[in-house]
Amino acid sequence: MASSIRVRAVENNGVTSLKALVRHPMDSGFVKDSAGNVIPAHFIKVLTISHNGKNVFVANWGPAVSKDPFLECRFKGAKKGDELTISWIDNEGASDSTTATIA
Amino acid sequence: MLKAKVILVALGAALAVPQALAGASPEEDRKESVEYFKQMFPDVPFEEFVNGQYALNEDRRKQWESMQDFPPYEFAVAEGQELFETPFANGKTYASCFENGGIGIRQNYPYFDTEKNEVITLELAINRCREANGEEPLKWKKGAIASISAYMASTSQGKPINIKVPDDPEALAAYQDGKKFYYSRRGQLNFSCASCHVQNPGKWIRADFLSPALGQPANFPVHRAKWGELGTLHRRFAGCNNNVRAEPLPAQSEEYRNLEYFLTYMSNGLPVVGPATRP
Amino acid sequence: MIDQRRRGFLKGVLGAGVAGFALGSGIVPLRVEAATAPDASDWPQKAFRTPGVDETISELYGMEATESDQITMDLPTIAQNGAVVPVTVETALPNVTSIALLVAKNPNALAAYFDIPDGTLPFVSNRLKMAETTDVVAVVISDGKAYKATQNVKVTVGGCGG
């Protein structure tokens, strides 16, 4: 099963720019299905990006973040070839993680 | 500022589009159509028409461009590739049903099958491939079929649309049938496809921005923010028919296939950009 | 509340699952490997369930935010679809440790907030859901103080979606 996380990280002049797209319904809990039942809230709560065991960015999300959430952030201290770890956990306790190499 | 212009579609007025329903060849029709839209939008380069409303509205274009780096359909295309490459129960794959193994061929669809005397769309070909190999057909408008179609379209990125209407009376009849559908008024609102997409592109209809007919099929299957997922061209046909309060036809019905045939022919020469995002 | 924010900050710097021991007045953190699944036990439920911008800022950061012209927001003037509105925020303010995005007219104002550790640029781009035409407020914690900027986004529901 493919990872739920797609990442592209590029380093230029000491700044790494990271873009990620995560597959997740991000249901808000406010929407009803066609039968009139509320679709329960199901969303990513925390997503972390770490480098050398240290978090370089933490996203704390609520259900107002769009479905299949996108994220872009920028940080220093990493270089081409370094490995990054991107992980998330949702309100149901499910999680996923992936690594990416900085280009 | 939101410009919510109510479209005044002159009731009963003849369309201002040069049209001789019988007599003009498809190529003559197409050239007239391209000329018409070029005059309507002189600042839009020809290839840009495939971007529809994004070629005409700066604010919307910016939003779209900011999403292009990581478009929301990425997962569906990856899924489509997986589905495309997974063999059927009998061991064969989709590649066996298509020329060039199904890679880089999207721009040739739909085509007219002179033996079966019908228009073959990509989605139809996908399901016929399944059935020929003992598999259940997929639902037509969304889900797996849209993902597979999106993957196949992605392998044709940039290739010019190349629909052929062979010198065959049945093929020409199918084309003309599609053209007639396009220009016929329908539904309680009494709009034809042309009412919005030929007479009024670049304008607002309530809170939607109308795109011109030229280039429309190039960006399918489409990920609509409204759907939150991919949908096929026939899903959109049905939706548009619904919106003028006309009874939508079944996906892949003969009428919709002929319509797709006509519409895609009109976009010959424009690059395949599907799948794409739209509101 | 103060504890929670500081814990959140420490977590942000040292990775999830950081262990620490109390020494005198503060917590001295031990450096540990970031756990594979992040720890969401500190996720501020109340802050994410508060209507209204000012109330939410107060709940999340425990202080009021003052207007700043050093926060740049990139948002569409008219969102083409309220389900997916791209929002980018960056700032020239110094020593930023947190950025929050609030959507005033959403049932709960807080959409997201981001921990900005040392060495990370005060920049973030996200896509948010907006229920209707609304102010979007970006809050930045710089040198321990809260600053904010506001921009309005018109959200329409397409009249001819099929």
TrEMBL record, chain A:
Gene3D superfamilies: Immunoglobulins
Alphabetical list of SUPFAM superfamilies matching this protein: E set domains
Highest taxon, organism lineage: Bacteria
Stretches assigned to the Sulphur oxidation protein SoxZ domain: 6-100
InterPro entries in UniProt: Ig-like_fold, Ig_E-set, SoxZ, SoxZ_dom
UniProt protein name: Sulfur compound chelating protein SoxZ
Native source organism of the sequence: Marinobacter pelagius
From TrEMBL, chain B:
Pfam family, one: SoxA-TsdA_cyt-c
Documented EC number(s): 2.8.5.2
Location(s), subcellular: Periplasm
Top-level taxonomic group: Bacteria
InterPro entries the record matches: Cyt_c-like_dom, Cyt_c-like_dom_sf, SoxA
Gene Ontology MF, one: electron transfer activity
A GO cellular component entry from the record: cytochrome complex
Main location: periplasm
Boundaries of every Cytochrome c domain copy: 79-161, 177-272
Keyword Electron transport: yes
UniProt: heme c 2 binding residues: C193, C196, H197, C240
Co-factor requirement: heme
Keywords: Electron transport, Heme, Iron, Metal-binding, Periplasm, Signal, Transferase, Transport
A biological-process GO annotation: sulfur oxidation
Residues bound to heme c 1: C97, C129
Membrane-spanning intervals of the chain: none
Keyword Heme among record annotations: yes
Stored Gene3D superfamilies: Cytochrome c-like domain
Subunit structure: Heterodimer of SoxA and SoxX.
Family per record: Belongs to the SoxA family.
The name this protein goes by in its record: SoxAX cytochrome complex subunit A
Automatic annotation (TrEMBL), chain C:
InterPro entries, sorted: SoxY, SoxY_sf, Sulphur_oxidation_SoxY, TAT_signal
Pfam families xref list: SoxY (PF13501)
Annotated ranges, domain Ig-like SoxY: 59-160
Protein name: Thiosulfate-binding protein SoxY
Organism: Marinobacter pelagius
Phylogenetic placement of the source organism: Bacteria, Pseudomonadati, Pseudomonadota, Gammaproteobacteria, Pseudomonadales
